[in-house]
């Protein structure tokens, strides 16, 4: 059957508006479309393809497990899930893991656990959840309500209650909001969709201290920032602050759908048998691929390489900006970077994304004002340089049309 971009409009729900070209093959940091045109991938499937496309070791893990065991109900456990859980808990603050299929599902589990913990350990009035404006935590009704972007949460009727928001990096506003009725605080230790916003050291430490004061659980949503993206296995490790619950997905499976919630034994015991579940969560295929991805990423070679590649990105982006004067700053950390547009180009991030695609470069936006890069952690320096040469041509095209 021949399918094209036009087929999308015929058969798919119109909640997406994908590009005109249809990718059919990927290798490393390069992708080819139906016409054989080659693209450099700085998008990484929105920070998912942590080792690029079709990494030989991930392909091997999938093929090996695919010939052994695909799926079991949660009446049984399986070896890949147990190995992955052991490796995640050994590498982090956590004692226990829960597996799901996505970041939203991992966040849903974290929020339900936090509510359950507060109800059983304290009282039913301790139910407030605090999150941050411009935050993003998924598209289930609970997680999209906790996310701080009304554009995503409005228009679907009454929302789950006892959810409040304040500005990220505004410790004074947060201190006014938190109380002994707060059960949990959910935050990204580097805001992704909201514009690639790094937390100030005093803010993140202050949030932790106030959570301790009011017996509130601190949930770090590391769906986008985790699995090496910042140069640490998880971003919390570079902040000197440890959460009570951590969620991880995206890069965890290197492209295969998987999410996980990590927490301590004391907190985990409140999800007793029957209180939460997932049909596909922890399936052997996903866990086998994620285990191999984690083994590769959690090495000094890969993690230290992220910092070197960030420096190369920043150097060349600085040179581009000297010529064209389009960015107010380059934000972010590691291989999660944002080019924030200055006032002359305000609100035009999508124009740069389209211009980049015309130059055979795949990139992202984070809101209307930030161009986002989230490539493979092991993208070759040659691909960074070639991709940024293409990006410079895109910037020149937008600037000349100004």
Automatic annotation (TrEMBL):
A biological process from GO: L-arginine biosynthetic process
Keyword Transcription: no
Assembly and binders: Homodimer.
Keyword Amino-acid biosynthesis: yes
Binding locations of pyridoxal 5'-phosphate: 103-104, 136, 221-224, 279
Native source species: Salinimonas sediminis
Pfam families per the UniProt record, alphabetical: Aminotran_3 (PF00202)
EC code(s) of this entry: 2.6.1.11
Family according to the record: Belongs to the class-III pyridoxal-phosphate-dependent aminotransferase family. ArgD subfamily.
Keyword terms of this UniProt record: Amino-acid biosynthesis, Aminotransferase, Arginine biosynthesis, Cytoplasm, Pyridoxal phosphate, Transferase
Cofactor requirements of the protein: pyridoxal 5'-phosphate
Modified residues (N6-(pyridoxal phosphate)lysine): 250
NCBIfam families: arg_catab_astC, argD, PRK01278.1, PRK05093.1, PRK12381.1
GO cellular component terms, A-Z: cytoplasm
Miscellaneous information on this protein: May also have succinyldiaminopimelate aminotransferase activity, thus carrying out the corresponding step in lysine biosynthesis.
Lineage: Bacteria, Pseudomonadati, Pseudomonadota, Gammaproteobacteria, Alteromonadales
Catalytic reaction annotation: N(2)-acetyl-L-ornithine + 2-oxoglutarate = N-acetyl-L-glutamate 5-semialdehyde + L-glutamate
UniProt pathway annotation: Amino-acid biosynthesis; L-arginine biosynthesis; N(2)-acetyl-L-ornithine from L-glutamate: step 4/4
A GO MF term: identical protein binding
Protein localization: Cytoplasm
Protein name stated in the entry: Acetylornithine aminotransferase
Cofactor stoichiometry and binding remark: Binds 1 pyridoxal phosphate per subunit.
Gene coding for it: argD
Binding positions for N(2)-acetyl-L-ornithine per the UniProt entry: 139, 278
């Amino acid at each position: 059957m021949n399918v094209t971009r036009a087929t999308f409009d015929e058969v798919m729900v119109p909640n997406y508006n994908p590009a005109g070209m249809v990718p059919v093959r990927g290798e490393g940091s390069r992708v080819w479309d139906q016409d054989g045109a080659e693209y450099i991938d700085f998008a990484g499937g929105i920070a998912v393809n942590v080792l690029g496309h079709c990494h030989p070791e991930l392909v091997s893990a999938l093929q090996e497990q695919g010939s052994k065991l695909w799926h079991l109900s949660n009446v049984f456990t399986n070896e890949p899930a147990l190995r992955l859980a052991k490796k995640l808990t050994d590498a982090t603050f956590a004692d226990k893991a829960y597996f799901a299929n996505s970041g939203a599902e991992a966040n849903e589990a974290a929020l339900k656990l936090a509510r359950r913990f507060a109800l059983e350990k304290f009282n039913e009035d301790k139910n407030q959840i605090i999150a941050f404006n411009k935050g993003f935590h998924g598209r289930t009704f609970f997680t999209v309500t906790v996310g701080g972007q009304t554009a995503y949460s409005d228009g679907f009727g009454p929302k789950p209650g006892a959810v409040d928001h304040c500005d990220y990096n505004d410790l004074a506003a947060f201190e006014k909001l938190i109380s002994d009725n707060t059960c949990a605080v959910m935050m990204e230790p580097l805001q992704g969709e909201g514009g690639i916003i790094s937390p100030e050291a005093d803010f993140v430490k202050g949030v932790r201290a106030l959570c301790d004061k009011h017996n509130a659980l601190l949930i770090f949503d590391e769906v986008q920032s985790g699995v090496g993206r910042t140069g640490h296995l998880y971003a919390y490790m570079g902040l000197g602050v440890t959460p009570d619950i951590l969620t991880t997905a995206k890069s965890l499976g290197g492209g295969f759908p998987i999410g996980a919630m990590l927490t301590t034994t004391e907190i985990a015991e409140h999800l007793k048998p029957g209180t939460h579940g997932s049909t596909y969560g922890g399936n052997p295929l996903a866990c086998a691929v994620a285990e191999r991805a984690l083994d590769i990423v959690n090495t000094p070679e890969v993690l230290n390489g992220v910092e070197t590649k960030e420096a190369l990105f920043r150097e060349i982006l600085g040179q581009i900006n000297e010529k064209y004067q389009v960015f107010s700053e380059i934000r972010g950390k590691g291989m999660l970077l944002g080019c924030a547009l200055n006032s002359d180009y305000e609100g035009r991030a999508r124009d740069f994304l389209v211009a980049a695609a015309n130059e055979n470069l795949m990139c992202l936006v984070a809101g209307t004002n930030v161009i986002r890069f989230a490539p493979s952690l092991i993208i070759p320096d040659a691909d960074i340089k070639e991709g940024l040469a293409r990006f410079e041509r895109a910037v020149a095209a937008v600037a000349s049309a100004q």
